Amino acid sequence: MERFTRQSAPDSASSTPTASSAASPRPSAKLFDGAPTLGSKLLVLSLIVASIAVTAAFAVNVFKSFSSSSLVKDSQFQAVFLDNGQVYFGHLSDVNDEYIRLTNIYYLQVEQQIQPDQETKGEEAAPQQQISLAKLGNELHGPEDEMFVQRSKVVFWENLKTDGQVTQAIESFVSGDGGDN
């Protein structure tokens, strides 16, 4: 039965402790005895810092690949919808974390007919609206054809198809045929 136990049976010669064996400590078989050393603490800390740095670098690269600048199709116009209801059409580019840049800018002007037509005097006619495309820069204050918009004011933006009505109206405006729809 003794071979199944962890301790071997004591000899008769070693059964009585001597003074020299009681004073010297037995070597321990433990790998970790007591508090961690300064070196092991620094090693663990440096591994944690390195793993955080690698994770942060990976996250930055992933988020950069999904940034809005990679989604903007440079060869097409974009529509930018602001939180005040205004919509601008132009070429969108990334400036920084606070602003976006819009160039080659157009917007819609809604002209409402105030007086009813002579033919519909007796009937109550709904006022007619005429929508036209306007180029930024022709206003009274004479702005340049470049606009910086706070990102927080942009509700959403979208790439416009090359065969869409707004893009066709812009091409028509540029060619000199006018911009009315």
Question: Mind explaining what this structure looks like?
Answer:
It is a single chain. The chain is α+β, with helices and mostly antiparallel strands. Among the domains are: 37-66; 70-115 and 129-175, SH3 type barrels. Helix content is 27%, strand content 25%. The chain has four helices and six strands. Strands 1, 2, 3, 4, 5 and 6 form a six-stranded antiparallel β-sheet that branches. A hairpin with a 4-residue loop joins β2 (87-94) and β3 (99-112). It starts with 18 loop residues before the first helix and ends in a 6-residue tail after the last helix. The mean pLDDT is 76.
What is the compact description of this entry?
27% of the residues lie in helices and 25% in strands. The chain contains 4 helices and 6 strands.
Summarize the helix and strand pattern as letters.
HHHEEEEEEH
**What is the overall shape?**
elongated
Which CATH architecture of the domain at 70-115 and 129-175? Roll
**First-residue to last-residue Cα separation:** 103 Å
Mean pLDDT: 76
Helix content: 25-40%
CATH topology assignment of the domain at 70-115 and 129-175 = SH3 type barrels
- Give the biggest sheet: 6 strands, antiparallel
Q: How much strand content do the residues show?
A: 15-25%
Radius of gyration: 39 Å
* Tally of contiguous helical segments: 4
CATH class designation of the domain at 70-115 and 129-175: Mainly Beta
Question: Structural class of the secondary elements?
Answer: alpha+beta
Low-confidence runs: none
